[in-house]
Automatic annotation (TrEMBL):
It holds the Pfam family FGase. This is N-formylglutamate amidohydrolase. It comes from Sphingomonas hankookensis. It comes from the Bacteria. The lineage of its organism: Bacteria, Pseudomonadati, Pseudomonadota, Alphaproteobacteria, Sphingomonadales. InterPro entries: N-FG_amidohydro (IPR007709), UCP029730 (IPR011227).
Length: 241
């Protein structure tokens, strides 16, 4: 098992990322199997959606290949939640006292190295990260009413276009919901914003992409959204010249 699943594509001005695409756990780490089909173990539907978008847009994509309960690829290497001991109320006993350096070396570092190398080689004009969120956390908080959320850091060029587009289609869309990208946006902070590349993170509510029909519907929606973002960014570049 490699740390990153890299999908090819000729449209190298766009790069798709999916940190939490996999529920795979290596044999030497004892994560309770029933957790791996829940949102704490994998971003439900995000992997299939990313693959569908990659095929539809002929764009390269990089997907994580290990469960977020083994190590969270969408965290900085020094983040306290990198190897979660509790996730949405579920105790992860295998992570208590885990060898942090070993897990980073096996999973986290090679995944981010793969993204770094791709970005350096292609220098995409847009990076889009695909995630999903649960309609309601088990540990509290009310229902999450949005169908999608757009997250971003300091650079909101791409995100603003995406939010306006989705809302214009009548899709309930959160701006920095269900959480803020200024609080948690580690992968894009590092590989997009840190390199001056416009980016956004898309969070789709996981009950909407839990089956092939939902994935197909949202693939079409997001493909059109990405086209709108690319066009909008191109117009901004042209006007700046």
């Amino acid at each position: 098992m490699t740390a990153a699943d890299i999908l090819p594509g000729t449209g190298t001005d766009l790069l798709l990322l999916c940190d939490h695409a996999s529920a795979w756990v290596p044999d030497d780490i004892a994560i309770p199997p029933h957790l791996l089909s829940l949102h704490v173990g994998v971003d439900i539907g995000a992997g299939p959606l990313t693959r569908a978008l990659s095929a539809r847009l002929d764009a390269p994509a990089i997907l994580g290949t290990v469960s977020r309960l083994v190590i969270d690829l969408h965290r900085q290497s020094d983040h306290p939640g990198l190897i979660p001991e509790v996730s949405d109320g579920h105790a992860i006993r295998a992570n208590v006292g885990a060898d942090r350096a070993d897990r980073i070396a096996r999973f986290h570092a090679p995944y981010h190295r793969a993204i770094r190398d791709q970005v350096r080689r292609d220098r995409p004009r847009l990076i889009v990260a695909i995630h999903s969120f649960t309609p309601q956390l088990e540990t509290g908080g009310g229902p999450r009413p949005w169908e999608a959320g757009i997250l971003y850091g300091r650079d909101d060029r791409a995100a603003r276009i995406a939010i306006d587009y989705l809302r214009a289609q009548g899709i309930p869309t959160g701006d920095q919901e269900p959480y803020s990208g200024r609080i948690l946006n580690a992968t894009l902070d590092r590989h997009a914003e840190g390199q001056g590349i416009p980016s956004l993170s898309v969070e789709v509510r996981n009950d909407l992409i839990a089956d092939p029909a939902g994935v197909a519907r949202w693939c079409a929606i997001l493909a059109d959204m990405i086209a709108a973002v690319r066009n909008g960014l191109a117009l901004e570049r042209a006007s700046a010249q």
